[in-house]
Request: fold
Amino acid sequence: MLRQVAEGVLIHQSEFVQSNAVVVQGRAGVLLIDPGVTGSELDCLVNDLHESGRPVVAGFSTHPHWDHLLWHARLGEAPRYGTARCAATVRDQLSDAGAKARIAAHLLETEIAGQVPLDLLGLITGLPAETARIPWDGPHVRIIEHQAHAPGHSALLIEERGVLVAGDMLSDVLIPMLGDVNGTDDVIGDYLAALRLMEEVADDVDVIIPGHGSVGGADQVRARIDQDRAYVHALRDRRDLSDPRIGPSAKPGWEWVSDVHAGQLQRLARRSERDGTPG
Ligand SMILES: [Zn+2]
Reply:
């Protein structure tokens, strides 16, 4: 079911990790950001859009992770975009013939095994680097590209509506998940830089939509930025922290986030051992 969160902006929430698909109404149709997860949810979204009489005229994926790259044939053949770096990463991932099978195998460990349509996964076009806005006939959607969480990740600011679509950041239930800790990128620095970009636009935001979790109001914008930064600082400094998303205060059903946290700590420790550097 579509739920309006701001004028002309609706979300469709999946039961899987509380994933949010975002629908933005334009003049001739809608922009669809990170469509939902399972086949039946995508079906539901298609039906809702059909009932509203609004075709999908553009799609956008915030980052190159499978749960943000899905599509349904009945959504039609509108152009689907991502940043150039996001699209290049997806191309790389899918150039390997076993990629989809690996995603399907990974899904076998989840409650949605066999329910995710992967046929149209990742068929996105990269927008030229430095593209400021999504090219479509609707409210201006500013692309805020950064390298936190995944290569070519972008947050989207729907300027006229005061809505920030955060991708996989600024969630009330998921901690910041760093990019490839095993690689050579400065994953901590990249994350902090991305949070600074979010901070620069915070005053223009009334509604924040995370890729996973609850939609927040204006009061939540800086609170979530601060919460994510405190988490990343604690990781960087190897400090204990109290974060409501992990440990005993985690919401029921989200206890696994504490394991993600433990995993990140471990990988960072291994990395600094390997490189002899902090972080
Ligand atoms: Zn992600």
